[in-house]
Amino acid sequence: MLYREALNRAIDETMAIDSNIVVLGEDIGRYGGSYRVTEGLFAKYGEKRLMDTPIAEMSIVGNAIGMAIGGLRPIAELMTVNFALLAFDQIINHMAKLHYMSAGKITLPMVVRFPQGVSKQLASQHSESYEQMLASVPGLIVLAVSDVNYAYHALKKAILMDDPVIVIEHELLYNKKGNVDFDRDIDPLKARIVKEGDDITIVSYLKMVDDVMEAVPQIEEKLGKQCEVIDLCALNPIDYQTLALSLKKTGRLVVVEEDHKKGGFGSQVISWAVEELFYTLDASPLRIAGEDVPIPYNRKLELASIPTPDKIVARIVTWGEQNGL
Amino acid sequence: MNKLLAEEIYYLMVLGRKFEFSAKEHYMKGDISGFLHLDIGQEALSVSAMKAFDRGDVFSGYRVHVMAIARGLSPKSVMAELFGKATGVSRGKGGSMHLYDPSHFFYGGDAIVGGHLPNAVGCAYARKYQGSEEGVMAIFGDGATNCGAFFESLNIASAQNLPLLFLCENNGYAIGTKITSVTPFLKQSKKAEPYMRTMEVDGMDAVAVYDALKEAQKSLHDGHGPIFVEAFTCRYEGHSMSDPGSYRTQLEMQICKSQDPIDRMKKVLIEQYQVDTASLETLEDRAERAVEEAVDFALASPEPDEAELYQNIFCQGCANVIS
Ligand SMILES: Cc1ncc(C[n+]2csc(CCOP(=O)(O)OP(=O)(O)O)c2C)c(N)n1
Ligand SMILES: [Mg+2]
Q: Do A297 and B98 touch (CB under 8 A)?
């Protein structure tokens, strides 16, 4: 099954059991979604449950909030995080805060989903990653989907949750293949151990998980050490428990992320580790992130602006050697 | 318009179409990547708009190659930008959607739908402040008229009586969404009517577009404040290279192609300006050559240096340098 098909199936199955679930967004109905996530749903559920909206991101999220207040369970799709920026007022000032400001009297069972990240030469207004902005807002559950099985289970759970959830997808993952284990439920807030290992904990999320996995065989060969790869999955709340267990075993932490390094999400993971597990660490943590530049169009420059498997290998191997690995 | 200008408009339209077909070909070959939005079918609008609004500032969107060329940017530097080369308009950092040239008062180039409209309003304020008579033109699609920024711009431009020409290219679609499925109006000028004078024009007719925009430009110069021009047009290709455009019927496409702007301009040249076939062919050959030269130039040009990555984040050699 493809990543986008897993997302589609999660929406389809929940819509089938709960008629309060509606979907809204640009090109999501008749057209089937710009990444084909809602394909086929319009024919099945009709225009009352799939609202094609005009290009009006602030209203897409704002309307979803109102729908949730009114008793529906909306799923709002935004084409990319770059356009979601137009809806950040609704997301941060309203979606994240109404529950708290009303002392719990208002609940917002809603999902806002969008892809982000560097695709292929879409230039800077279509290539950004802003998880760090959203994961720092109290009141939002933020999930980052890197895997097909997780896509299906996490989106399903997110739709059925009573708290507002941001589901971040990645532009380059929609056609990723994988298996879904329909029989085994997962907790979407729990980090996923992608690969076990005893020596280095590599924490990542979204597409960088794939890049890390591509890099790992070479890292292990060159350093003669075993890597444990963790996909964070939830960026808010963060599953520190799983991270701590791994770090107690390995004593070494690397974080790999695609967003800009300055203020990027990985700095949170490292600052937590240094504050909480300082004496467990055998080496200074390493952070591999995107450059602090707008993403350029030219392919060579674009690749120079973000981590790639080659760069991940080189950085970790150099760091490993400097730290006596 | 005089014969010389009519010929130039025809030449630029032919050049524009050949340029777009060539870009399409090179996209399929892998020389161009990312989002590529072709202007085929809408050339009358892109070219006549630039020729009529010849002096003021222009703000536009992402379907912008033909406009940029008609504005005076060289086909070579535009093609090189599409190829992501160091010789491109934006030295390979912007790509197809981000073409800018302040020396031609051309500010692209924006890929956030509706995002450039408030910028155009601000620029119109600056021009009025400076006592300039040229005014500003903002170009956008039918889809952009549903953005909040659009309504805010209508309101502020009108409240401030700014010299701003709103040019709406109504091709009936925003990607795969038919405009009437998300707004109650077929004509988007309805939205501007409460604020300002509105005009409508056949966007497949280069002469009509030119005349309408000349009239609108005069209205700006005369200090009548903002004006809204809606041009009805048709894009022949999908929204971008990743959209096959299959949501439109064959009949619909047939009807709009029967209005082909290049065929119509050719007819005007022959019938009204007595241009003979040989002269037409000369123009067409010249356009063909310009596109070939642009492609050769793009292919031969170097990739940008890796150092380019960190250039232009902040202004170098300006006040308050941050290095
Ligand atoms: C704020 C924002 N939302 C969504 C998009 C994605 N998008 C790009 S073009 C487009 C359709 C625009 O349609 P229209 O304004 O009619 O222009 P046309 O492409 O038809 O020329 C959409 C939705 C975007 N670029 N920016
Ligand atoms: Mg349109």
A: yes
pLDDT in tens, A123-149: 999 999 999 999 999 999 999 999 999
| Close Cβ partners of B149 (under 8 Å, ≥ 6 residues apart) | B114, B115, B117, B118
Contact B34 A122 (CB under 8 A): yes
CB A42 within 8 A of CB A23: no
- Residues comprising chain B, all counted: 323
Active site residue A57: yes
Considering the domain boundaries, does residue A302 fall inside one?
A: yes
**A256 and A296 inside one domain:** yes
* A261 part of contact set with chain B, CB < 8 Å: no
Burial degree of A231 (CB within 10 A; 0-12, 13-18, 19+): buried
pLDDT digits (tens, 9 = 90+) for A42-79: 999 999 999 999 999 999 999 999 999 999 999 999 99
Residues A131 and A230 in one domain: no
A321 is catalytic: no
Q: Which of B112, B181, B309 is facing A293, going by the closest CB pair? A: B309
Domain of A98 in residue numbering reads as: 3-170
CB-based burial label for A30 (10 Å; 0-12, 13-18, 19+):
middle
State how far the Cα of B323 lies from the Cα of B316, in Å rounded to an integer. 8
Size of interface A-B (CB pairs under 8 A): 111
Ligand 1 atom 5: the closest Cα is on which residue?
A: B113
Alpha helices by DSSP H, A25-130? 41-45, 57-69, 81-84, 88, 98-101
First and final C-alpha spacing in chain B: 51
Is there a single domain that holds both residue A312 and residue A255? yes
Question: Is the pLDDT at B317 greater than 90, yes or no?
Answer: no
Q: Which H or E element spans position B278?
A: helix B277-300
- Spatial CA neighbour of A11 closest among A131, A162, A167, A115: A167
List A5, A26, A57, A169, catalytic entry: A57
CATH number at residue B315: 3.40.50.970
Can you tell me which residue has the tokens 């399929």?
A: B28
CB of A129 within 8 Å of any CB in chain B? no
**Min Cα–Cα distance to chain B from A277, Å:** 35
CA–centroid distance, A246 to ligand 1, in Å, is 45
